[in-house]
Amino acid sequence: MSKIVVLGAGLVGKAIAIDLAKKHDVTSVDVNNEAVSSLKPHHVNTIKGDFSDKLWLTNLVRDFDLVVGAVPGFLGFQMVKNVIEAGKNIVDISFFPEDSFLLDDIAKQNNVTVVTDCGVAPGMSNLILGYHHPRMKIDTYECLVGGLPVVREWPYEYKAVFSPIDVIEEYIRPARYVQNGAVVVKEALSDPELIHFEGIGTLESWNSDGLRSLIKTIPGVPNMIEKTLRYPGCIEYLRVLRESGFFSYDEVEVKGVKIRPIDVTAKLLFPKWKLKPGEQEFTVMRVRVIGEENGKQKTYEYNVLDRTDLNTNTLSMARTTGYTCTAAVELVLNGSYSRKGISPPEFVGEDEKCFKFILQYLKERGVIYTITENQS
User: Fold this and answer.
1) How many CB atoms lie within 10 A of CB 295?
2) What is the pLDDT of residues 271-326, one digit of tens each?
3) Which CATH code fits 124-307?
4) What region holds the Saccharopine dehydrogenase-like C-terminal domain (predicted)?
5) Which ranges of 144-279 does DSSP label H, i.e. alpha helix?
6) How far apart are CA 234 and CA 36, in angstroms?
């Protein structure tokens, strides 16, 4: 039994702690006392504390075998840096905007394994591409992914399980993708496309900045793109808000008080985006890898459609994100994955045993990826 500390007790952090506590001695840490208190019935130790305090965090993690990062993105980079400097291995899902490889040298100096972006997308999507890249000459990689409420409620037809500011970041951060070997940068929410998904219906996809590390770590793939999925019509609302300045980080003065519009917007939107008790949601993802394998054209397609687990009341986004993370935790703990420095999930996926372990781990928890192959 290993000692693990999970930093962050939000909806995903909670699912991570509960899953790991079935086998390990787990402690959950959050500044929100209500959040950590809800974990006590699940045999999870709890601490109320501020993990943005470096000295406090360093003293905290000293007694643990591994750290899991599940904090909002704006806290993620510094938190991971502090954990590295404390000499502890970490698996992180904070999806911070900074380049994680800025921490590569310091992680290697501290002999630390750091698995970043280890969720569903980025995360499982990276693992899939990382697995196939050394095994075939890939021409095209495409990931379509979204988490949505079952009930479409006006006006946004969307509910968030992450920090609202992290969600808004998807709508304003320029989207990067690779086309004909060149990196293309477009605004988020661009190039909308209607796509049909079995069991769901028609959804709308748009460019988002989900490739992240893949642009740097997977060279030679001429076409790579990730697009986010929402119900049709959602994009127009978001574009109006963005173009009107509601997502801006630049302070404006209102009656002598300087405020950031994004803070007000997040405060107003969160109640509308918050899942109501008993409200169900689903996560849908389709990953296609197209290229040449053993001299023949091959297409691999991975599909997952996961819904709220009504038995445990665990949200699908928490399951698909959290259990990918906890699978990676097990790989690091048992020594199956021990590469030092920064490891985005595609590095983990290169190893066939690691890749298949994660697929099986997810399957055992009801998160099932259907894999189809087409050869021409």
Assistant:
1) 7
2) 888 888 889 999 999 999 999 999 999 999 999 999 999 999 999 999 999 999 99
3) 3.30.360.10
4) 119-367
5) 164-172, 214-217, 234-243, 261-273
6) 33
Between the CA of residue 9 and those of 13, 33, 134, 148, what are the distances in Å?
A: 5, 9, 37, 21
The Cβ of residue 310 has, within 10 Å, a number of other Cβ atoms equal to 9
> Within the chain, which residue ranges are assigned CATH 3.40.50.720?
3-119+317-365
CA-based radius of gyration for the chain: 20
> Are the C-beta atoms of residues 81 and 109 closer than 8 Å to each other?
no
89-139 per-position pLDDT tens digit = 999 999 999 999 999 999 999 999 999 999 999 999 999 999 999 999 999
For the chain, what is the mean pLDDT?
95
**Alpha-carbon span 356 to 354, nearest angstrom:** 6
- The alpha carbon dihedral of 232, 237, 240, 243 has a sign of negative
Give yes or no for residue 376 having a pLDDT over 80.
no
Kindly give, in sequence order, each residue whose CB lies less than 8 Å from that of residue 54, ignoring residues fewer than 6 positions away.
78, 82
Q: Quote the DSSP letter at residue 22.
A: T
Distance between CA atoms of residues 161 and 318, nearest Å: 8
The CATH architecture to which 3-119+317-365 belongs is 3-Layer(aba) Sandwich (3.40)
Q: Comparing C-alpha atoms, which of 351, 343, 370 is closest to residue 122?
A: 343
Q: What is the largest CA-CA distance in the chain?
A: 68
What digits encode the pLDDT tens for the residues 211-252? 999 999 999 999 999 999 999 998 998 999 999 999 999 999
Structure tokens at 173: 């951060």
Ranges of CATH 3.30.360.10 domains, the chain = 124-307
Task: Give the C-alpha separation, 212 to 129, whole Å.
Answer: 13
CB 304 within 8 Å of CB 367: yes
Give the helix ranges, DSSP H, for the chain: 11-20, 33-37, 54-61, 73-85, 104-109, 124-132, 164-172, 214-217, 234-243, 261-273, 316-333, 345-349, 352-364
CB 102 within 8 A of CB 327: no
